[in-house]
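Work Package 3 (structural annotation) set out to generate three-dimensional models for the target panel prioritized at the project kickoff. During this period the team completed the workflow that converts sequence records into discrete structure tokens, so that structures can be stored uniformly alongside our sequence database. As a representative example, we reproduce one entry of 277 residues exactly as it appears in the project archive.
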Amino acid sequence: MPPFDDPFWLALLLKMSASALLVVTASLVVERSGPLAGALIATLPLSAGPNYAYLALDHGPVFLAEVARIGMQVNIGNAFFVLAYAAVAPGRRLGPAALAGFAGWGGAVFVVRMIDPGFATTIGLSFIVFTGAYLAIRRKIGDERPPPAPRTPFDLPLRAGTVMLLVALVVISGRLAGPALAGVLAILPMVLSSLVIILHPRIGGAATAQVMLNGFPGLFGFGLAVACVSVAAIPFGSALALTAGLITAVMWNTACLIIARRGQARKRHLEQKRTPA
């Protein structure tokens, strides 16, 4: 079989394209509309979707259900990626801030995978982690647009190329490295880290940290979407399960955006009423 007839290469192309589209769109929305909208776009499962679809085609709904259950556990690590990065990023260069994020993610994933809780326990643990962290950081979250950054004619192609190259390096390295390392590389927070790599040098660590923190509700919604896939895959089949997961994520993020916008409008209204004429 010629190498490019291997489904792996088509899956890689889809993942590279989906990740680039997601991250570039989110970065543009951040610069034009603020960190909340950009973060909610970035946390949609448009990049993870092709992975799950190909796993379902290759291995069937039982395997998909188990992979989705593990994905819920790994998503808890994403919360710690955000918290660790946001704690270090203001005033720091990209390298130390990104390393802090990966350290937080890796430590959390190691602990959760070592415990390997069941489905119900993972749901409860996700709720505790995301809710507790959100309540702790909510006063630090803002939605102000970052200051405008200079652009060049090559800006968008460079952003897309950066993401696609990063995804290709990770996925191909995983395939060549063997199953153990491949399993780790396959669950790296590619969209979050790609967004950090693009935004941190452009708008600074503090503004990028705001994007990450605004993504907390969306990350919890991603976990709910993966939970839907895990629950629905066996009784209803892979296609319906994946569709249900995508719909769940889109509805959740849309609701989060509407609620946040209403809250901001209410806050502005109260501030105007307090301001003397």
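The longest helix spans residues 238-274.
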